[in-house]
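Hi V.,

Quick status before I head out on leave. The structure for the redesign project is tokenized and pasted below; the design run finished overnight.
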């Protein structure tokens, strides 16, 4: 039985559980798998754990909640964040949602391995829903166990915080705990199951509502619940869109959808900027707030390969590859438009909003590439070709995307008579095999550098100021796939030091951090085809 106890160090958390107070609940209080109709959530308790142990926590996230480091290091924190204890005002629940998985309508999905504890009301008025991922079965667990293992939890914990520090909208991770229980997993889905350490990440976000949260009600014809959820979302998370009267009108829904389109476009521009590939952009994994959500088989581009997807389940069609993320986001928004259509009954404004997505993305992408290249602004006549030529060159031979843009700042652009060697030398560390570049490739690359240098000189900006601007958008440190895997290997052997160290490095991803240089190194050869480093198996919950 989960016990309710007042815990001194966490009793400063104030809860304001709007979601469950304002939206319809599933009346069935039993925890068994089922289709849940006419309700946004089901009450359910986290599964008590054997021997919870704190592995890591985010002091920045804790701070946003008003928790000190001492609070996070208390035993009650570990108990609560592993689902063993509830604070008096916590009312745990799992949310009902549906979604399109890999382009197919999948019906009801829901929080199958996530349990929300409640909404913390922070001092600044911000609500933070706390959610335990891997805390046991819920009515939405379908054929699975509701649990999570250490390796996927380390990845989610580190990446959430890395994205935050990179300035990319995301759900957050407050803590990572080991449960002390073991979980049976068939990592490669090849019949070779083994026991792995169970773990729980406590995630935090202003809202965990997804595109699929709306889709499920429209699909079922439960339009009154659809309206309640949309109104709730607008009032809670988009209050700036409410008309003076406070009454939500058709125009309010349209503004809201436009805002979701805009936020989503901005998010995808960020992903493309840093080479983040989500891996499972199903509509249930798209946040209504336009924040990155559900870190599963995500990955980071090492060498720039627009066709790359980290998700082996998606190997055949590569639906969720890097280059297709902008288009998939649009497809997902179209599904959301269909879902909220009954609130508006007019296709035109929804189509206009989708066009706004395209325009925002296009404009944002251009501005982002101008910044990455150190241009002061985007000049359509020259710069579209400049970027396209570069991207073709980068994709042609294995070039580390992150290192390339960081090193580009060091090309001596002021020199008007750059030799081929002058052009390539500052970038040599970005190539995976710098010695095997063909003479033709070297020539074409040097030609591009000369063109680029000329273009930079037009801006008349000091080198120092340009380099500073470039370094502010081109991270030196990203959560490289092999680094996470090294942290996982160590953690599975009981050593959490690399998790801590990566968390520390990722706090300042745009800074040089000379003593952390080795974390900026390109993928080592041993990691090229190693599971976890180059490819991941997503949960095969497509049933
Ligand atoms: P995902 O691919 O992680 O977005 O998950 C898709 C759906 O499968 C969601 O409804 C999840 O809650 C559910 N799911 C994934 N893994 C598990 C698990 N281990 N136990 C229960 N449900 C799961
Ligand atoms: Mg998901």
């Amino acid at each position: 039985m989960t016990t309710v106890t007042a815990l001194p160090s966490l009793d400063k958390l104030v809860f304001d559980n709007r979601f469950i107070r304002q939206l319809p609940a599933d009346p069935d209080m039993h925890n068994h798998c089922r289709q849940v109709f006419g309700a946004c959530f089901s009450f359910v308790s986290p599964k008590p754990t054997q021997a919870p142990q704190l592995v890591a926590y985010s002091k920045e996230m804790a701070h946003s909640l008003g928790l000190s480091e001492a609070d996070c290091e208390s035993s009650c924190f570990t108990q609560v964040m592993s689902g063993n204890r509830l604070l008096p005002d916590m009312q745990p629940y799992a949310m009902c949602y549906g979604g399109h998985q890999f382009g197919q309508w999948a019906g009801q999905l829901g929080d199958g391995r996530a349990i929300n504890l409640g909404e913390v009301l922070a001092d600044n008025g911000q609500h933070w829903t706390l959610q335990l991922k891997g805390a046991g079965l819920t009515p939405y667990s379908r054929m699975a166990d509701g649990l999570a293992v250490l390796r996927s939890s380390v990845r989610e914990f580190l990446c959430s915080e890395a994205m935050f520090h990179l300035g990319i909208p995301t759900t957050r991770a407050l803590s990572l705990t080991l449960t002390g229980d073991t979980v049976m997993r068939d990592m490669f889905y090849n019949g070779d199951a083994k026991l792995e350490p169970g773990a729980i990440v406590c995630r935090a976000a202003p809202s965990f509502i997804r595109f699929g949260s709306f889709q499920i009600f429209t699909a079922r014809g439960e339009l009154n619940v659809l309206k309640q959820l949309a109104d709730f979302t607008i009032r809670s998370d988009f209050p700036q869109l409410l008309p003076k009267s406070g009454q939500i009108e058709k125009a309010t829904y349209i503004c809201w959808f436009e805002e979701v389109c805009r936020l989503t476009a901005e998010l995808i521009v960020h992903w493309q900027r840093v080479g983040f590939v989500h891996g499972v952009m199903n509509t249930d994994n798209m946040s209504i707030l336009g924040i990155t959500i559900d870190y599963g088989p995500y990955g980071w581009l090492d060498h720039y390969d627009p066709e790359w997807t980290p998700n082996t389940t998606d190997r055949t069609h590569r639906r969720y590859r890097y280059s297709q993320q902008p288009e998939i986001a649009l497809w997902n928004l179209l599904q959301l438009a269909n879902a909220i259509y009954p609130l508006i009954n007019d296709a035109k404004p929804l189509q206009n909003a989708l066009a706004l997505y395209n325009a925002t993305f296009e404009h944002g992408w251009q501005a982002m590439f101008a910044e990455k290249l150190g241009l002061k602004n985007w000049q359509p006549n020259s710069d579209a070709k400049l970027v396209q030529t570069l991207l073709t060159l980068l994709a042609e031979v294995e070039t580390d995307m992150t290192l390339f843009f960081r090193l580009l700042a060091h090309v001596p652009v002021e020199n008007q008579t750059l030799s081929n060697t002058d052009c390539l030398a500052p970038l040599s560390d970005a190539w995976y095999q710098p010695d095997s570049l063909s003479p033709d490739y070297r020539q074409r690359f040097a030609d591009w550098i000369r063109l680029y240098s000329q273009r930079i000189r037009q801006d008349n900006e000091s080198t120092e100021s340009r380099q500073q601007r470039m370094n502010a958008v081109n991270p030196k440190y990203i959560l490289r796939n092999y680094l996470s895997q090294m942290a996982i290997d160590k953690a599975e052997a009981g050593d959490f030091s690399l998790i801590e160290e990566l968390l520390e490095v990722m706090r300042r991803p745009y800074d040089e951090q000379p003593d952390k240089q080795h974390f900026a190194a390109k993928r080592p050869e041993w990691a090229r085809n190693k599971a976890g480093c180059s490819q991941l198996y997503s949960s095969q919950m497509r049933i």
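Above is the designed sequence. The longest strand covers residues 172-185.

G. will cover questions while I'm gone.

Best,
W.
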